[in-house]
Amino acid sequence: MNFFLLKTEPDDYNIDALARDGETLWDGVENALALKHLRAVKKGDKCFIYHTGKEKRIVGLAEAVADASNEKDATCQLKFLEKFATPLSLAEMKNIDVFQAFELLRLPRLSVMPVPAAIVQEILKRVR
Predict the structure, then answer these.
(1) Is domain 3-127 annotated with CATH 3.10.590.10?
(2) pLDDT for 67-99, tens place per residue?
(3) DSSP assignment letter at 114
(4) Which of 102, 118, 120, 122 is least surrounded, with the fewest CB atoms within 10 Å of its CB?
(5) Which helix (H) or strand (E) holds 6?
(6) For residues 74 and 25, is the Cβ–Cβ distance under 8 A?
(7) Exposed, middle or buried, 32 (CB in 10 Å: 0-12/13-18/19+)?
(8) pTM of the full structure
(9) E-strand spans in 43-109?
(10) What is the DSSP string of 17-61?
(11) Dihedral sign for Cα atoms in the order 45, 51, 57, 61
């Protein structure tokens, strides 16, 4: 099982909508590198949901219910797992050493990215 981070504009679709819907089709990714990462998502992988815009924070967790499509415009079916009681902000991550190599800080416009194991553990420690 791998972890990914998926970004969404909360005015368009947010963690509360995912919780209400239970499942959603994650689509609309256009950047080539983000599409490459999305195509790597497999059934059972976990996905941190990140609100962009004014919020800039990791707000919850979802799970891929099927492998992502390998089409030109890749998509992935996700199911809601959890809304974090204590979201983790980008500002907080910028002040923590383990996050310095995270693509979220290095490539801030990338909408889909893998999350290395050490960073997964740090995120989970801070949001639960």
Answers:
(1) yes
(2) 999 888 999 999 999 999 999 999 999 999 999
(3) E
(4) 118
(5) strand 3-8
(6) no
(7) exposed
(8) 0.97
(9) 46-51, 57-64, 76-89
(10) HHHHHSEEEE-----HHHHHHHHT--TT-EEEEEE-TTT-EEEEE
(11) negative
